[in-house]
Amino acid sequence: MDGAASGALWQAPALPCCNVTEQLHASTLQLQNLHRQQRLCYGDSVHGEFPLSRIPSIVLYVLSECCLDPQDLARLEATCSFFKRPANFSPDVSLSLSELAALGMCQRRAGFSSMSTEDRETFKKRCGGSWKLVLRFLKAGEFCYRREKCQAIAGPGHSVVVTNSGDVYTFGSSSSGQLGHGTLEDEWHPRLLKSIHGVRIIHATAGVGRTMLVSDLGQVYAFGKDSFSDPEYGGSAKSVNSPRLVDSLCGIFIVQAVIGHFFTAVLSREGRIYTFSWGSDAKLGHQTESRDKTPQLMKGALEHVPVVQIAAGFCYLLALTCQPSGMSVYSVGCGLGGKLGHGTRTDECYPRVIEHFQLLNLQPVVIAAGAWHAAVVGLDGRVCTWGWGRYGCLGHGNEECEVLPKVVEALQGVKVVHVATGDYTTFVVSDSGDVYSFGCGDSSSLGHLSTSMGGQAHRQGSVLHPELVVSLKQRQERVVQISLTNSVTWNAHTFALTDLGRLYAFGAGDKGQLGTELVDNESERGNPELVDIDLS
């Protein structure tokens, strides 16, 4: 059929028109830009251009003051050899600008700045051989547990608050002197701990009748029950009602401390774990008496692997490591309920890596150890839980145990940055500052309250899936930290710290642990109330 018969005129298809002159001009401009970028890095500048190689000190200042992440510094080296080649700065002329910037940011950290040159080099080798890896290690630790930032600790019946300036306030039960004020009297309002005035505290932890503080000089102060394990296990213990240095840790620079039921553990700035007590059964890889106050170095797989965070449950310990290959989680102790995360319920006397995260393609960045269950936050914002599942504390919609880490599917679409666990309870905080909680609702510490027609508040039962804590959402503030009581013997209370430096408390308050006096025979408070304390 021809074009006339079809009713349409045939037209030749349009051919692309190649403007050779324009293409050559564009190519010339690209080459000129490339040459110009090379001149800016290495010299041979023309009028009006200033090569970076002539002002490396300014480049180094910018890199350091911008507080770039170690990954960003590594990308600069991979992108341009100007940032990778030796910068010829003393005392080490072999270091690149990226390495010098990383070293400078490390030196701003209190724990690192006090190291000798020899200790720094040893530390660098332990972290993987570069200052960028050392910086990554230090920043990972700061992110995990708010080191050198204000923090609130909801202990069993008492509370500890550390301000940005390093001052400490305690309140609540002082039955064993755990408030540190020199008496056994309870405090219903935050009270400044004056006996350590002038000492800057960067970290705190609380256990049953015990409190431990870590200073910016790596010293550890302890008060309350003079024992590193529960007296029921280690025998009767006397009380110390004011802060006292832990002499056995002198010579070891400590950055974190945690208190379990049968043991206490501390973490050194080099990433080594030391434990006290619970050695008679070799649960933590050593054979010592329960009352022994000598710190024992954690043996086994973690001897040569740097640890950035530790977390203590009732009878087990988690450790988060930072290596050039990535972050990993190790567990040790009692395996009942599968809380060690290895697919079994057997005990582990030495730390063992939880391999299941590789199968989940999840890189852990934060760990939390509840009394009977555990949780991890991944770099991508996913949350995994495992262990005993009573009351729905794992967030999987049931009360079954999980012997391997399992992603909480109900949080899909929520990027989580923080997790906290207690006695069958779990809280997570999203990157937007929203808070979700699940688990045992027998107390008001979950923050979920319903109101009857008569206006009476009622607690929920078990919360099997993560639920938004509406009472905190209504405050219209971004929550950055949650702390809740991690004890099987005390009613729980919870703290929520916001980015504005405000602290809210709810849950059990019969001993003053909420920082306010209750009225009308109240023993707890279901809605978050502002704690009258200046965290600046």
Account of the 3D structure:
The strands form 8 sheets. The chain has a 4-stranded antiparallel beta sheet with strand order 1-2-3-4, with no helix packed on it. It has 11 helices and 30 strands. Strand 2 (158-162) and strand 3 (168-172) form a beta hairpin. The longest helix is centred in the first third of the chain and has 23 residues, at 20-42. The N and C termini lie far apart (88 Å). Helices cover 19% and strands 31% of the residues. Helix 3 (56-65) crosses helix 5. The chain is of the alpha+beta class and 536 residues long.
Observed structural traits:
alpha+beta, four-stranded antiparallel sheet, 536 residues, disordered N terminus
Extended strand count: 30
The oligomeric state is single chain
Question: Describe the biggest sheet?
Answer: 4 strands, antiparallel
Estimated structural class: alpha+beta
SS strand fraction: 25-35%
Please tell me what the overall shape is: globular
Give the terminus-to-terminus CA distance.
88 Å
Radius of gyration: 28 Å
The proportion of residues forming helix, as a percent range, comes to 10-25%
The total of helices stands at 11
Summarize model confidence as the mean pLDDT.
Answer: 86
Low-confidence stretches: 1-24, 34-40, 451-458
How are the strands of the largest sheet arranged?
1-2-3-4
